[in-house]
Amino acid sequence: MLAMNYRGPYRVRVEQRPMPEILHPEDAIVRVTRTCICGSDLHLYHGMVPDTRVGSTFGHEFVGIVEETGPLVTNIKVGDQVLVPFNIACGKCNFCKQGLFGNCHESNTMATAVGGIFGYSHTAGGFDGGQAEYVRVPYANVGPTVIPPDMDPDDAVLLTDVVPTGYQAAEMGGIKEGDTVVVFGAGPIGIMAARCAWFFGASRVIIIDHIDYRLEFAKNYAKCEAYNFKSMEDPVVFLKKTTDWYGADVCIDCVGCEAEGNALQTFTGKVTLMQAGAATALQWAINSVKKGGIVSVVGVYGPPFNYVPIGNVLNKGITLRANQASVKRLLPRLIEHVQAGRLDPKGLITHRIPLEEIADAYHIFSAKLDNCIKTVLIPSTKA
Amino acid sequence: MVNDNQDYKKIPGWGMDIDLENEPTYPMKNYTGDDHKRSDYERSEQQPVNIELLKSNERPRTSAVFGTSVPPSGLSGMIRRYAFKHSEDRYRHWIPLILADRVNAWEGIFEDLRKGTIPNILAERGYKAELKYNPVGLAKSALVVLVVGTLAIKYISKKK
Predict the structure, then answer these.
(1) What's this model's pTM, rounded to 2 decimal places?
(2) Residue A208 forms beta bridges with which residues?
(3) CB under 8 Å to A277, separation ≥6 — which residues?
(4) Residue ranges of domains in chain B
(5) Scanning A166, A186, A250, B112, which has the fewest C-beta atoms within 10 Å of its C-beta?
(6) Predicted ipTM?
(7) Would you call A127 an interface residue with chain B, using a CB distance cutoff of 8 Å?
């Protein structure tokens, strides 16, 4: 089968790999029909995530058709069209039982701080991902969800990560009716977080980035205000001023470790790797939120630590909330939103590229060429 | 493991101010109290371990399932084995892993050459897309490389 093959920072290709096999009685093999490149895949692509081994296949956003199931799989059957949450979750450990499907304790041998994630380095379990024609799906009774017959597969593939992560980012903000919400990062997750903030009763949603075409897209898609921080002397002062010198009620970091905008953060985080990436967005979020406000973090940061103004978290009485999205918990509600037409996930897709052209696809997304927002890769074996 | 010792409940005032609404993890977490059982939960069957698996020393056993992608090998594998002797808290875990990743990239090139394939690094870096969507930027980068390269060669030849 064809599969993506990571060769080192900024280098990927597709090549023939052995077919995945059932290795556990709760496994399934899924034939991939749609798979996306996630913004967080770029952290792998850029060599920012430790233990990303040459020869790995990335991809944690995919949908497909069940080809084979292990003897203990009962919830899905061969031929089902399924969307597969990016979290690999057993459904039995204490964390899964309490809805924390992103924190499963039985899917990652290599690290305890994160549960297993498809195609996201050995730090997240060493699983091959879905940027391939076929993929092994562990715990197939738990994660894979049959796609409703009336749902477009382009909508379904975005329900595996982008929509739940954006939605949970807003949910974790504890947004109250009338709140002003600031979202840092106008990538797909940030745009979705801004869109979802309205579901929770925000009265004003502001998105901050430095790429004009993305800000324009966000303004139209998420019906929010959009500002380029490069046009500001100081984004924190701008946000204080625009909130009557009070601070936003909720700030959401949808950027993570490759943020721009602060020379010291960039130098220590991206150039010299003295911290796990540049935490500029989180720094701005903490400093822009009101006293007693809430900062929600879904931007991805690597280990072991980042420079953030934790003193201000204390002094301002900020509540900091963060987690990998618990996709399975959120799916029923999000499927309702999509089916009712309240959410249009596929509206984020700007590029459809054959899996064979994966190197170009990664470069387009990474270098933000051709006004790229979201790329879907399509294996040639698609049904 | 459940704490069978209930003596703490005799401490004056124990539990008087419990507020079940005070749950900052809601709605992410549907608190059930199962956390107090610690690692005593039903596990799925163990996936057979028939590859070399590096295990975090912060957990007592391998997870019930695990990925089998790219077991450690070569020099990078030796570095990774060293890294996994240390906990996720330590720099000596993460820095060696990043070093191993960089070594591994070179191992990948040597592996390609050993198999008789010259890796097409320009294609792997997506330069076809760069040429299509950013030809001016590509030309600028090429010019910078050319100028810097020429200056470097001149400087080296002058020194000789």
Answers:
(1) 0.94
(2) A184, A227
(3) A43, A48, A256, A257, A258, A259, A269, A270, A301, A302, A306
(4) 51-119, 122-154
(5) B112
(6) 0.92
(7) yes
